[in-house]
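Deliverable D2.4 — example input (structure tokens):
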């Protein structure tokens, strides 16, 4: 575990799997809902935060996703998107994040007349405003947008084209998200083909609500460089016992490929518990295959997924893992360096970011 004098919050961190519509402040939701007449379960900020956490703690990804009807409902105007994005960056910086890739689905923010391009521009405006405010406060943070297509919809190619169109305006990559089971990656093969020809990096939600076939699809159809969650990759790992003292581990072909190619796993411990992604192994953090994957040499990264729904932060997720598995500062540094190398930044910028992580851990 980190030493008594170590503040995990003060350690520099990288956030790769963080949903914009999953990280709103409860008070912001209340203030954005009132002028547009959007009905909320409660208008008390503390109670609303509790409502999100309770509703999300369902053991089902489908039920978990229903809470987003509320957050996306108040993110339908330019002003709402700008504010949410600005505050999101401030909250990342307060959590010690120095680089974050923020994912969101523009197609879910069109009910009040915005175009796809206008939503991206609004979010970028908010992100840049947040970066400026963080700088004024004496800190530094970088962020990039991951443009997401909803896997149950039929707009994958259109959203992929949107991502490429804005790659010079803050967009660093592409993702598909939403209901995983029954909506395989190959439904969006035309989008992935387009992205591959444009050399746009891709991460795909896979191995959360569906198993190995979903991961295969992410790798084959999506050409994914990272797996969003990917926790059920552990289904392709066999642990046996040679005798009373010795065990053996055998990797299946999918797990072997992911490990050998250093394809990053965007693991989100608290969220994985809430959605039932680790149900095959148990219902406690100690049952999470995170440590197994780490010890076997997979490129594991630690993420929040949705800060509001999971009532969490990157600091909290790292603390939970440290308590569960006895990790120390060296382990936490490995997780951040894994995330640096998996980020969608150019190589020289990743090297600079890695230097910042090493320097930051050395001084805390």
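Example output (designed residues):
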């Amino acid at each position: 575990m980190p030493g008594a004098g170590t503040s995990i919050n003060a350690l520099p961190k990288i956030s790769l799997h963080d949903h914009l519509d999953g990280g709103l402040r409860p008070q912001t939701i209340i203030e954005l809902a009132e002028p547009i007449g959007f009905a909320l379960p409660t208008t008390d900020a503390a109670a609303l935060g509790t409502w999100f956490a309770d509703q999300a703690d369902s053991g089902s990804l489908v039920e978990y996703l229903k809470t987003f009807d509320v957050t996306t409902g108040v993110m339908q105007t330019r002003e709402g998107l700008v504010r949410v994005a600005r505050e999101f960056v401030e909250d990342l910086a307060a959590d010690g994040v120095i680089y974050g890739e923020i994912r969101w689905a523009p197609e879910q923010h069109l009910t009040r007349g915005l175009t796809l391009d206008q939503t991206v521009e609004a979010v970028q405006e908010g992100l840049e405003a947040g970066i400026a405010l963080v700088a004024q406060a004496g800190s530094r943070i970088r962020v990039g947008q991951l443009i997401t297509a909803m896997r149950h919809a039929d707009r994958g190619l259109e959203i992929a084209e949107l991502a490429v169109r804005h790659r010079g305006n803050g967009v660093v990559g592409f993702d598909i998200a939403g209901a995983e089971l029954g909506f395989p990656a190959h439904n969006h093969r035309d989008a992935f083909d387009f992205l591959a020809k444009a050399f746009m990096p891709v991460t795909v939600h896979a191995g959360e609500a569906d198993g190995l076939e979903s991961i295969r699809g992410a790798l084959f159809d999506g050409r994914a460089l990272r797996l969003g969650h990917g926790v059920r990759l552990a289904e392709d790992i066999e642990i046996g016992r040679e005798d009373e003292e010795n065990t053996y581990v055998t990797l299946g072909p999918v797990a072997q490929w992911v490990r050998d190619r250093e394809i990053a796993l965007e693991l989100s411990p608290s969220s994985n518990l809430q959605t039932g992604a680790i149900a095959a192994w148990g219902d406690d953090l100690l049952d999470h295959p995170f440590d197994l994957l780490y010890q076997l040499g997979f490129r594991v990264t630690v993420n929040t997924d949705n800060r509001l729904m999971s009532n969490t932060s990157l600091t909290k997720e790292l603390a939970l893992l440290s308590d569960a598995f006895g990790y120390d500062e060296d382990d936490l540094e490995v997780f951040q360096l894994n995330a640096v190398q998996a980020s969608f930044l150019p190589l020289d910028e990743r090297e600079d970011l890695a230097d910042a992580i090493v320097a930051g851990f050395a001084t805390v």
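The chain has one domain: 8-350.
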